[in-house]
């Protein structure tokens, strides 16, 4: 008799090991950039500060401390520009704008600062205390660039018994960023009346308007016609005046020279002309500074069959 088969049972122990990472999180601590010592110092002023021109309050936040032997000591502030004798910012092409600087300490009223002159003493503090430097652009400045910057030094002078005992100096740069804005004002319809037409002469009409804006000096002008363009028998591309009967070709031109009424280069679709905003009062458009002129050639209007022709001419200006 054969021996019974032996059955072996193998038990496989499966061990599931789950590993978990233990992460210790520390709260983020902003490390202040401080210059000076524990007796007299400024924090978070050194370096570059970017300011948006469109902000109503153009402020730089930092802190100041003035103490000695556990007692708060008064101090004065003097800001000196690295270039020139006035508070100014400069564009890449060297144009300058005037600014004013004021300082607030301990959330007090703002105190005007004058270039190279020490302020009246402020009360000191044992700890780093909030301060604010406010920038204001002079209303007479022409904002013809989209970026300005200027470097300055702030000197802190500490006093004991009305005598200076310590001083610290910190350098900083203010950067003003300007979002270019451009607009057109006073552009009305151009009406050309046939009562003054002279046989053999072109018909000309013009309209003066104002191009305004900030953050740029030059701009590009392009023209487009609702009626499209046509080519004359001489192969010249011109815009079209339309009537129910026919269309008449005409030319359009632009200039920023308000003394010109003739000799202006004409523009057709896709062409651009460069204009410049003069250094006058921007944002007000007190006077027109651009001119749009249309010309209907004599050979076109003299053979016309209609009595009323129109087109919509679109003027597009782009800051440069």
Can you put this structure into words, describing what you see?
The protein is an all-beta fold and 320 residues long. It folds into two domains: 144 residues, CFA/I fimbrial subunit E, pilin domain (Immunoglobulin-like); 139 residues, Immunoglobulin-like. The chain contains one helix and 22 strands. Strands 1, 2, 4, 5, 7, 8, 9 and 10 form an eight-stranded antiparallel sheet that branches. β4 and β5 form a beta hairpin. The chain starts with 33 loop residues before the first strand and ends with a strand. The N terminus is likely disordered.
Main structural class: mainly beta
Rounded to the nearest angstrom, the radius of gyration is 36 Å
N-end to C-end Cα span: 108 Å
Count the helices. How many? 1
Protein name: Spore coat protein U domain-containing protein
List the topology elements:
Layout: E1 34-36, E2 40-43, E3 47-52, E4 58-68, E5 71-72, E6 75-81, E7 88-90, E8 96-105, E9 111-113, E10 125-137, E11 147-160, E12 163-177, E13 181-185, E14 203-214, E15 218-225, E16 229-231, E17 237-242, E18 247-255, E19 266-267, E20 272-276, E21 290-296, H1 298-301, E22 313-319
Parallel strand pairs: 3-12
Antiparallel strand pairs: 1-2, 2-4, 4-5, 4-10, 6-11, 7-8, 8-9, 8-10, 11-12, 13-14, 14-21, 15-20, 15-22, 16-17, 17-18, 18-19, 18-21
Question: Notable features of this structure?
Answer:
single chain; 320 residues; mainly beta; Immunoglobulin-like; 2 domains; eight-stranded antiparallel beta sheet; seven-stranded antiparallel beta sheet; rod-shaped; Spore coat protein U domain-containing protein
């Amino acid at each position: 008799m054969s021996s019974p088969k032996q059955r072996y049972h193998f038990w496989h122990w499966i061990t599931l090991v789950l590993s978990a990472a233990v992460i210790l999180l520390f709260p983020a601590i902003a490390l202040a950039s401080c210059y000076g010592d524990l007796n007299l110092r400024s924090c978070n002023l050194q370096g570059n500060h970017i300011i948006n021109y469109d902000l109503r309050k153009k402020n730089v936040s930092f802190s100041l401390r003035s103490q000695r032997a556990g007692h708060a000591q008064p101090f004065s502030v003097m800001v000196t520009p690295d270039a020139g004798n006035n508070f100014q910012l400069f564009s890449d092409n060297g144009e300058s704008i005037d600014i004013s600087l004021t300082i607030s300490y301990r959330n007090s009223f703002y105190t005007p600062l004058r270039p190279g002159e020490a302020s009246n003493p402020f009360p000191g503090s044992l700890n780093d205390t909030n301060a604010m430097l406010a920038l204001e652009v002079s209303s007479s400045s022409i904002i013809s660039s989209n970026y300005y910057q200027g470097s300055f030094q702030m000197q802190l002078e500490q006093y004991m018994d009305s005598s200076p005992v310590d001083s610290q100096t910190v350098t900083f740069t203010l950067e003003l960023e300007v979002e270019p804005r451009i607009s057109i004002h006073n552009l009305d319809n151009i009406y050309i009346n046939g009562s003054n037409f002279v046989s053999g002469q072109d018909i000309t009409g013009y309209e003066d308007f104002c191009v305004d804006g900030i953050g740029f000096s030059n701009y590009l002008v392009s023209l487009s016609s609702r009626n499209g363009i046509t080519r004359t028998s001489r192969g010249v591309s011109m815009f079209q005046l339309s009537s129910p009967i026919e269309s008449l070709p005409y030319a359009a031109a632009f200039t920023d020279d308000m003394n010109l009424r003739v000799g202006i280069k004409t523009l057709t679709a896709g062409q651009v002309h460069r204009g410049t905003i003069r250094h006058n009062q921007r944002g007000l458009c007190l006077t027109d500074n651009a001119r749009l002129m249309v010309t209907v050639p004599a050979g076109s209007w003299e053979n016309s069959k209609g009595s009323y022709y129109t087109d919509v001419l679109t003027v597009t200006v782009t800051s440069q």
